[in-house]
Amino acid sequence: MLQLTPRLEKLKDRLFNVEYHDPGVWHFQNVNILDITGNEFMKDEPLVVRKAYAQQHICRYLPAQIKPDELIVGRPNQNSVGWGSVLPKYYTKDEGELAARYELDECSLWGHHPPAFDKILTQGVTGVKEEVEAALRAQLDSAEPDEMAVNEYRAMLISLDALVEFSHRHAAEALKQAQSTQDEARRNELLEIYRTCQQVPELPAQNLQQALQAYWFTYAIVNSGGEFIPLGRADQYIYPFYQKDIESGVLTREQAVDLLGSFLVKCNERIIIDTKKAENHFSFGLFSQGVVLNEEEAQSRINGTGGFAQRALMWQDDEDINSEANFNYGQSGNDWLMNCMVGGVHPDGTDATNDVSYLLIDIMHSMQLLFPTMGARVHNNTPQSFLELLGAVLRYGQGEPMIYNDETIIPGFVEQGVPLEEAREYCNDGCWETLIAGKSHFSYAHVMNLRCLEHVLFRGVSLNNGEQEGLDTGDPLAFESFEELYAAYVKQMDDRIDFQCERRLENFGLSYMIAPDPLFSSITHDCVKKGRDISQDGARYIFHLILATGLADTVDALAAIKKMVFEDKKVTMAELLDALKNNWKGAEKLRAMLMNAVPKFGNDNDYVDEIAVRLLHDFETRVVSWREKQDRLMFSCGIGTFENYAVLGRDIGASANGRCFGDALAPNYSPVAGQDVEGPTAAIKSITKPDLLRFYCGTPLDIAVNSNEFVGEAGIARMSDLIRSFCDLGGQILTITSTNVEDLKDAKIHPENHKSLRVRMGGLSAYFIAMAPAQQDNIIKRFSR
Mean per-residue pLDDT for 592-617? Predict the structure, then answer.
């Protein structure tokens, strides 16, 4: 493992002891650029151009910060997934009200997909502007210019110039600090920061420091503009600059480590350990894809009586830890969808693992950082030394890097029509789903499989609220076989798949009316070519992922009904329904029987695993049918809950696998907690029995293992072998959290002793002590076997 340099020790100390306890500043509250003196001309501009001026306002007034010891500079606004975004507004009252009718506002930027950061590094803003200017000239010279494209190009140029202005403000700040410091070594560093910020991102990067700084400035401004985005294939973007500096002798390895570490520190500065100090700026429009409403529904929402769902409420000291406010508090507060990928292959199929792949993982681990959430691509020719590094790091608990299997994921992209060379350059989005970096618009929707089964058993009526939510597929008491029940289940599932596909086709592009992003679009392939925004049809690939959610619970519940009701006849359907309605009250023996006498998914048992195979085949068949009905969106399949497995189960009634009303779902493609009693290999065998080719977008298996079983060199070998076995058996995505229940329990009591304890949450990793108490208990349950 890496020995931290003195600089990185200082930066780590500042993070853990100062910045993690600072709630940060939310800039641009209550600002509308149209109200600023001198901006009157903007009112006559199209909205996309006004959005560019709002990005210009961010670049001019977001503080230019340079902190002691850092080599990479600049800080984004405090925006976060869980606590919302604050952006300067740029629209009129009427425009805002119209957007609100569709549940949209300025924060309705979907994010998740990375732009082509490498374009900024290799071409600079100047090179990107040349492309935009050429496209603009072509439009203006045409007989009938496309007005929408012309407006987009103008907006792109304004926002790109603004990005340069942001960097030059930091150059001025570096020069100012160089003048005032008495430390000669720091003065030289500040002068180099000055030269770097004068060069990039305006011009192509010439060395490692410039590449990292251009990378960070671009991320900071895109994120401050409301987009929560990953970093793409970081090692591939950075390595050419690293290699050049190392081979030429411009940098020593220690100096390169300092630069890479400084970059990684920037990714973590906004974390808040004491989440109760955080401000909540969550708005109804955050992550909204738009909803087409009738007049009555729209008016209800505008008047505030419709009740917009909030993802995060403020902590309430006078309420129970399981209250609506406290249950999920801060769950995504320390999240920016800031993933990145290392390893994998080049477009020609050769191994792409390089020195930066190793260093990014090593520095992240040695500094005990959370971000960027790291993914590592593995394939048949991955170096053994890289597998051993992964094994060594994953012994220590944080659930990262996530493991991606190139051998199963790349063919899925190709099957859906992505050229092989581009498929080989896939990366992850903001959680774990796969896409093509810099060329994709990505979105997703859940199909709640366990709720579909609830609708079968209760004729479409929810146990949570008593309302008719699903189809009435007949009286379950009249089902004479499991086949009849399963056919009803497929009808419910197909209905939800159809709903999600139809809705996305209906609402795709709606957000352009209020939340375009010309800066992001300027560095996303094909947006310039088409003259369209990322929020429209600009990107080369427009993926919409349909997720099977709550899969393991659903499969286990179906197995329980099949075996106990229809085969062994240990319980009647009427008795089961009564027990579910009453949340097992008075039926404790029945619940124990269903939990313990029926095979469970994740134990390499064909009885239950074959139900999973069948269900996923039927799920895939319905999703794929939507590819044939239209050609606008690329519908793909996945299995997932992200970090929301607890909250997603909160309004689902008791289920036939023994789960109680409101209990958490099994995360992602994992077995139900405590039911995978045969160990990790059996779980891997279970999840790889279905044909997952069309589920290439993501089927993460989240494994929790006892860290005491992976000690020393033998432990590294055992963990590396587990990774290789997962890939050889055909798994796609694997996360491993290695800790022990004693540490977790002690961290609840003595958080000061466990500042860096990290755990995997399905869609992200988190410092355990920053989680809500109820979520800490869910994690402990996963490790209590």
Answer: 98
Residue 298 dihedral angles phi and psi, to the nearest 5°:
-60, -45
Of 54, 210, 62, whose CA–CA distance to 124 is shortest? 210
Note the pLDDT of residue 407: 98
- Helices and strands in the chain: count of H runs, count of E runs: 27, 12
Query: Which three-class secondary structure state does DSSP give residue 466?
Result: coil
Q: How far apart are CA 659 and CA 601, in angstroms?
A: 14
Helix 449-457 to helix 551-560 angle, to the nearest 10 degrees?
30
Longest pairwise C-alpha distance within the chain = 86
pLDDT by residue (tens digit) across 519-555? 999 999 999 999 999 999 999 999 999 999 999 999 9
Cβ proximity of 446 and 642 under 8 Å? no
Quick one: which H or E segment has residue 139?
Answer: helix 117-141
Residue 318's Cβ-count burial label (10 Å; 0-12, 13-18, 19+) is exposed
Q: How many other CB atoms are there within 10 angstroms of residue 568's CB atom?
A: 12
- Is the distance from CB of 645 to CB of 553 less than 8 angstroms? no
325 token code pair: 């406010």
Q: Check if the beta carbon of residue 209 is closer than 8 Å to that of residue 322.
A: no
**In this structure, are strands 758-760 and 733-739 parallel, antiparallel, or unpaired?**
unpaired
CA 10 to chain centre: 30
Output the CA–CA distances (angstroms, integers) from residue 228 to 79, 261, 336, in the order listed: 9, 22, 5
Q: If residue 733 lies in a helix (H) or strand (E), which one and from where to where?
A: strand 733-739
Give the Cα separation of 721 and 700 in Å (integer): 18
Over residues 249-266, the pLDDT tens digits come to 999 999 999 999 999 999
Q: Which helix (H) or strand (E) holds 316?
A: none
Angstrom CA distances, 597 to 561, 562, 658, stand at 12, 12, 11
Residue 697 backbone phi and psi in degrees, to 5: -70, -20
Q: Calculate the alpha carbon distances from 115 to 413, 445, 634 in Å.
A: 19, 22, 19
The two structure tokens encoding residue 578: 């009564």
